Amino acid sequence: MNQIARILPDFHVQLHRLAIVIITISSLVADLLIQPSHADVGTASAYSPPYVPNACYGYDVSLFPSDNLIAAAGNGIWDNGAACGRQYLVRCISSEVAGGCVEGATVEISIVDVAAAAAAAATTMVLSNTAFGMIANPSLTNDGINIEFQQV
Question: Within 10 A of 95 (CB to CB), how many other CB atoms are there?
Fold first, then answer.
């Protein structure tokens, strides 16, 4: 009986240490699995060339990405022209048409213009046809899509 009385406090200490280790590991695993998103949600449509003149660079196409992965900013991100040159990662998250988004596709665009007045109020960004077609069905250019976007 004496031996059990001596072992019992050690057992409780070891059990307490094990519980702390399990809680710590569980917390670390939860942190790895649940990562907060730093992206915003908005809408996008598409527009066709010509992309000049534009509000950011006028007729100077040398400042455009050579792949035409560009966009015009809507009122929400235009920021009185401060958006010029900003780059965003954009992905389609939904559309009114089933299968409208290209699954898993993301495109990196540069802001080169402000959206036309009607579009600026109604959409977050208007993507070049090239950029739009990389993340959504090109036939949806007039319907628009819901996007997730993050400045890089």
Answer: 17
> 0.90 exceeded by the pTM?
no
Residue 91 near residue 106 (C-beta atoms within 8 A): yes
Task: Kindly state the helix (H) or strand (E) to which residue 16 belongs, with its residue range.
Answer: helix 2-33
Residue by residue, pLDDT tens for the chain (152 residues) are 556 556 555 665 666 676 565 666 655 555 555 545 688 999 999 999 999 999 999 999 898 888 999 999 999 999 999 999 999 999 999 998 889 999 999 999 999 999 987 787 789 999 999 999 999 998 887 778 999 999 99
Q: How far apart are CA 130 and CA 63, in angstroms?
A: 17
Give kind and range of the element (H or E) at residue 3: helix 2-33
Of 69, 78, 76, nearest in space to 41 by CA:
76
